[in-house]
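Hi L.,

You mentioned the student needs an example of a multi-chain input paired with its predicted structure. This one should do, with 420 residues in total across all chains.
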Amino acid sequence: MIEEVVPDIVISRLPRYLQTLNEMAKEGLHTISSQTLSERLGTTAAQIRKDLSFFGGFGKQGMGYSVYNLIEQLQRILNLDRIWQVVVVGAGDLGRALTRYQGFAIRGIEIVTMFDVDPKVVGTRVGSIMVCHADEMESEIQKRGVKIAILTLPAEAAQVTADRLVNVGVKAILNYTPVTLRLPESVHVQQVDPVLHLQHLMYYLGGNQA
Amino acid sequence: MIEEVVPDIVISRLPRYLQTLNEMAKEGLHTISSQTLSERLGTTAAQIRKDLSFFGGFGKQGMGYSVYNLIEQLQRILNLDRIWQVVVVGAGDLGRALTRYQGFAIRGIEIVTMFDVDPKVVGTRVGSIMVCHADEMESEIQKRGVKIAILTLPAEAAQVTADRLVNVGVKAILNYTPVTLRLPESVHVQQVDPVLHLQHLMYYLGGNQA
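Structure written out for the whole complex:
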């Protein structure tokens, strides 16, 4: 792989490219132009070509892309050619909904344990996943070598819990709390706050409501 | 407001600026430099200044930003100076978790109704919100003039439901299904698929797992 530093914004688009290519593969498409792909994604062909050029580019001029080849390359770039173990910290409604989410397993994501402090939920199961006490968090994560955690905790507990996770080797956090986490640069965080997404949408609704 | 077309990627960053500024206001900060704000956000001061310059810029050279003024301006830009009504379509685990989410009301988002087709959940309540049958979706949305919907449905139902919502005036969809929706350009969609966020993170974990 070309080891140029790729802007994070480019990386953020690759999973959607992959998702759309998988849909196209299911529909029986074998070869597509960047134009077709861009229309499906609501972006421009130039954007897609530019993004892919960071990784060497995969299309022949005027020939379009091989759907399967592009899928394979994107999977390799995103390190999706393996199973990733993930822990869910916080077994409330959202943590449980995520743990039950059908879309993980088929895309190589294995939720291995949930953690909570509430005695009413510790020891129960969500689907096949056991909810362990948060006291066991460090030892469980180290034992399994888990690098990825999903945080679905109350806001007050977010920073201290994230610090604990990072201390035992977690390198990537999907943060569903409304807190902007302060962590070492080597740790990658994606924040998913439905309010932030809605506020982004509301920008475009100006004048639509009185 | 300056009516230049602002790139969507700029808009996508404003809610996080606002969130961080609100945290700073809570901490008692009144004036901040773009440097301080950028450190908190894990971005660069130049990026923040460039983003804000689309809206006229709000700092005096060398003086930093007034936290409260910047909050007020961002709220205005994002149309957050009002209450927005939102419907949730799909009353499964995730729909219920979202409807119960404490972070909406304090930030001006009011979930008004949920819809589902499952006779076991139609007519029940999630917190104070009634789950209505999806047959009533069009009439309810038109009656209330709702412009924003959150989709937490099975993938198979996503496109047809989104089409129905758009037909009765919905202009913004927060899409939690794994489907890339095809809708008129005038409709704004934010897709929230935990897998896409995790895949983005996995890019940075190459070599961390054997």
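You could point out the following to them. Chain A has a mean pLDDT of 90. The radius of gyration of chain A is 20 Å.

Best wishes,
N.
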